[in-house]
């Protein structure tokens, strides 16, 4: 049959290429529904020895069947690879998440104050293993810190108790009862900057007509000042005698305070009768 007799070439864009084929050209083109109801591809070339035109028509599904099979296999391999990758990621994530979850639980208990909670044993050399080792060292450091803190707290509480006793003793050295006499208005109050200090005041009657007064401030603070204050009070009370000039008494008190005083603690002192 002549190719021109195919009714499907009428009003078909492939007619241009068929014309080229009949003119002796060669080519490869798609011709939809030329001889069958399916898309086709045609390759055509001239035969110079006979003057014929030779053409081979392939249905598209047969021409690309190998390629379609290749794409299907490639798609199957891709899907299988993705599934394998997902399974691998899930397994690795679980292997990573499980020790991390155990570490999180242990650290939560450590944060609640249980410093002896056992940490999960992770021997891996990965970052998770290094993290577990760091938590273990942190736990030991916290144990030592808490133990030292407890000991320091106990020592501090003991010291505070002793300081309170020392404060009671120091305040007990000061006169508490003030004279109730019409010719005298005498009052005093001592508020140390710390628990105990080196401030002092004192008064006592030398006789019915003479009142000894003293106000002092030790140069240091805290326990040393308190001890020096007690020594000072004891000295001027023991050395003050009726009939002895006050300047001579204070000079003797000064000599005693300067003796065996390597830290050069001094007292600013005002006294009078």
Can you walk through the features of this model?
This protein has 273 residues and is an alpha+beta fold. Helix content is 50%, strand content 16%. The protein has six helices and six strands, in the order αβββαααββααβ. The protein has a three-stranded antiparallel β-sheet. A three-stranded antiparallel β-sheet has the order 4-5-6. Helix 3 (65-111) packs parallel to helix 4 (127-173), helix 4 (127-173) runs parallel beside helix 5 and helix 5 (222-239) runs antiparallel to helix 6. The mean pLDDT is 80.
Spatial extent as radius of gyration: 55 Å
How would the global form be characterised?
Answer: rod-shaped
> Which class do the helix and strand fractions yield?
alpha+beta
How far apart, in Å, are the first and last alpha carbons?
154 Å
Poorly predicted residue ranges:
none
Summed over residues and divided by their number, the pLDDT gives a mean of 80
Q: H/E series, N to C?
A: HEEEHHHEEHHE
> Strand fraction band?
15-25%
Number of helices: 6
Strand order of the largest sheet: 1-2-3
Main sheet specs: 3 strands, antiparallel
Number of strands: 6
Q: Please bin the fraction of helical residues.
A: 40-55%
Topology at a glance:
Blueprint lengths: L14 H8 L4 E6 L6 E9 L4 E8 H4 L1 H47 L15 H47 L25 E7 L5 E8 L3 H18 L6 H13 L8 E6 L1
């Amino acid at each position: 049959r002549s190719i021109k007799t195919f009714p499907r070439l009428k009003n078909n864009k492939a007619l241009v290429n068929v014309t080229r084929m009949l003119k002796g050209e060669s080519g490869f083109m798609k011709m939809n529904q030329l001889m069958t109801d399916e898309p086709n591809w045609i390759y055509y070339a001239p035969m110079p020895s006979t003057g014929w035109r030779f053409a081979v028509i392939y249905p598209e599904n047969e021409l690309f069947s190998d390629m379609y099979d290749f794409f299907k296999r490639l798609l199957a391999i891709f899907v299988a690879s993705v599934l394998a990758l997902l399974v691998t990621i899930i397994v690795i994530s679980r292997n990573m998440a499980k020790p991390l979850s155990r570490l999180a639980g242990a650290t939560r208990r450590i944060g609640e104050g249980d410093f002896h909670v056992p940490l999960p044993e992770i021997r891996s050399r990965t970052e998770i293993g290094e993290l577990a080792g760091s938590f273990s060292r942190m736990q030991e450091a916290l144990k030592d810190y808490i133990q030292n803190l407890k000991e320091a707290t106990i020592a501090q509480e003991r010291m505070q108790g002793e300081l309170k006793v020392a404060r009671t003793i120091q305040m007990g050295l000061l006169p508490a009862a003030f004279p109730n006499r019409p010719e005298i208005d005498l009052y005093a109050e001592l508020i140390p900057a710390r628990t105990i200090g080196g401030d002092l005041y004192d008064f006592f009657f030398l006789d019915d007509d003479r009142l000894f007064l003293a106000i002092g401030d030790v140069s240091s603070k805290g326990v040393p000042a308190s001890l020096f204050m007690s020594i000072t009070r004891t000295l001027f009370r023991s050395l003050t005698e009726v009939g002895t000039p006050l300047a001579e008494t204070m000079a003797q008190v000064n000599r005693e305070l300067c003796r065996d005083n390597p830290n050069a603690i001094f007292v600013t002192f005002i006294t009078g009768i």
